[in-house]
Known about the structure:
By secondary structure, this protein is of the alpha/beta class. Helices cover 41% and strands 19% of the residues.
Amino acid sequence: MTTPVVSIAYHSGYGHTAVLAEAVRxxxxxxxxxxxxxxxxxxxxxxxxxxxxxxxxVFGSPTYMGTASGAxxxxxxxxxxxxxxxxxxxxxxxxxxxxxSKSGDKLHTLQFFQTLAAQHGMHWVNLGLLPGWNSSTxxxxxxxxxxxxxxxxAQSNNDxxxxxxHKADVATAEHLGRRVTETAKIFTRGRVAA
Length: 194
């Protein structure tokens, strides 16, 4: 079986989202993927080619003003060259985001990623976790402590740097990296069988 290629296309304004990108990377590596981190605000032609040959593209951005960052939107618009030729059709996609508020309209950012993936004909991989930290016996250290289903969501205090990213949110992002890699392995086996 071939090794799945997972690329993490992300923007990080203050470093918090970069911590999550590294966590997705760690989870994907742990599950046996070849992984590439791609900062979309400085993307090169070689990195575009890496995205083109990837089995999975995981989108990541902070949530600013209820959506992905401006830098991520510039990248999303630049993917139209791939869209017109359906170059990313049938790849897997997933996403993660961070904001200072517990909600912060992060769901809208994840839905933006889902729509971007759908326009490319990609298959969305959700988080696959029940919500954590939603009962009197639960803990803020539970996986998926913020209760998102569409992707990995994190909350980081706006008066702390990247070191303040919550450990449960890092672990949730690692879970996402493992999940997309395992899903890519299943898709690869299915394609071979077909």
